[in-house]
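hey so i finally got around to running the thing on that chain from the lab meeting. sorry it took forever, my laptop kept dying and i had to restart like 3 times. anyway pasting the input first so we r on the same page abt which one it is
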Amino acid sequence: MAVTRPVPSAWRVVWWFGFVSLAADMVYEGARSVYGPLLATLGASAVVVGLVTGAGEAVALVLRLAFGPIADRTGRYWSLTILGYGLTAVCVPLLALAPRLGAAGIAFAATLILLERLGKAIRSPSKSALLAHVTSAVGRGRGFGVHKALDQVGALAGPLLVAGVVAAASVWTGMAVLAVPGAVAMLLLVTLRRRVPDPGVYDGSTPPSGPARATDERRGWWADVVGAGLPRDFFRYAVAASLTTGGLVTFGIIGYHLTVDGLLPVAAVPVVYAAAMAVEAVAALVVGTVYDRSGARVLLAVPVLVALVPALALGSALVAVLAGVAAWGIAQGVQDSTVKAVVADLVDAPRRATAYGVFAGVQGLFAIVGGVTAGWLYERSLPALVLVVALSQLLAVVLLADTFRRSAPRLPAG
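ok and heres what got predicted. didnt touch it at all, straight out
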């Protein structure tokens, strides 16, 4: 007689997902904290750094357009999540080989960075859809916020680990040691998959099958990719939120600025990044709780923070730069947690992975334009960069306010 294993509590599963992200973020964020100096060491210019880091974010976002529908049509949410995390666990440590390749080192490093970001694209719609099921039982703002906070513990620990290794050895050794938390993340994820094969039990829903799957097939693949049938409020929100994504200067540019302008040594840059991750964790928890209690309008603060970043973080006074990094951390934390909770509230469960894919695809288009533009303007006119970002965020505020007004019945009441 088969023994049925009891289903873990929803909060326990949220924490387990958080621990997976904690270990994986030690890998990714540890590497991300030194992408600017790493690429500069290989001979990259600010434009190249902006292009690679912006394109990386675009790959991580735009390609979710494909992997969201794949998840919803196949129901293989866990398989795609595991595959995506696997790419991160493998590609980041391989960056240690870049300086051995001479002139090909930049191309090799850029390729690995993009492949690691492909892993993010593969896993994110599926992981977010799985987590959306579980957080329905605990409050989506709080659930996504707690997950993000644990994620940020890894984002804090990873850069600190890299900083210590860089100070003692080199940036390349720092990349190699990140293989250890990568292996831990994969072990935790596989264990969680065995314990909770169907997170739909937490909200009484199931992956699309039968009539829902048939509807997907009639609608067609490309219709899914562009989000046919998703609510208009969702698309309005996607554009508004993506303006903040595109306007947020990448940390690659900030790290490049800190080292090229001689404000900090390379070994100190990951420490600054780790501090930003700590700020990001607190922001995710606080804003997630406020979202559940007071409503979506709390997100109107994000464009203001994004507009402050280039004015502060790309200046010549270290104190102002650090304040700008703190603003960057808060904005980044909200974008990667509570912003996702809004998507889950706007879209029904059978199409959430598709919605997360479309949402990320729109974000990605803005991210690559924003990354290249920031790198180009940084080398030519900082005041122009500050002005362009400020104008884009003014438009974001207007669109977000209109979106929240129109979609109020589906969002938490203030």
